[in-house]
Amino acid sequence: MQSREAISVIPFPAEVPAVRRQPIRRYDPMTTPSKDVSFAQASDDVLITLFQNGDQRAFRVLVERYQERIRNLLFSIFHEPDFVDDLSQEVFVKVYEALPGFRFESSLYTWLYRIAVNKSRDELRRRKLRRFFSFQSLDDGTLAELETRMAHPPKDHESADLVAYGLRALPDHQRIVVILKDIEGFSYEEIADILQIEVGTVKSRLSRARTTLKNILGPIIKERIA
After folding, report:
1. Is 0.70 topped by the overall pTM?
2. Which of 47, 166, 167, 222 has the smallest count of CB within 10 Å of its CB?
3. Which residues of 2-29 are buried (b: 16+ CB within 10 A; e: fewer)?
């Protein structure tokens, strides 16, 4: 199983097929680093250009720059450290494969998050299918026990766990919007770009999600402080 540290040491798995390099899309002598400028100081666009021209070091820098942010996003969705490490690796494999075709039409930051969100959606869909077929084999007594456990949070939740409990109760499309806005701090416009939806849709999903969270967590919080 890959760890977070492994991603920073190995920027992409050895089994990734070779990708045909595209011609340099941007060159600006004022922004393209010379040999004496550190890669770590280069902008995202410059690093992408260098990678598209065949420089693998640029990709390593991009991975190191963004891997922790992507992992934090995935952890907010799944709360499973080992699985999140593996999924983070898959995200950067996809980035490595797709980056030669990057057209600079959005920031790298939002483009990376779009890939991570799409990977998360795929996994959530797979889990729903697995859950559906697993439920078919459970007897009525077991199902009733599971429903009771899911409907009542443990008594001794810490605040972070309480938020995680509330997020898990949301539909996937609302949960992702809440995470991007209230945890990751993206603007409405950036979220719309990541999810490829209208800004108005972002706002309506966020409003409904916050209302649901208030209804779910409000009584629990009141009980705590009573």
Report:
1. no
2. 222
3. eeeeebeeebbeeeeeeeeebeeeeeee
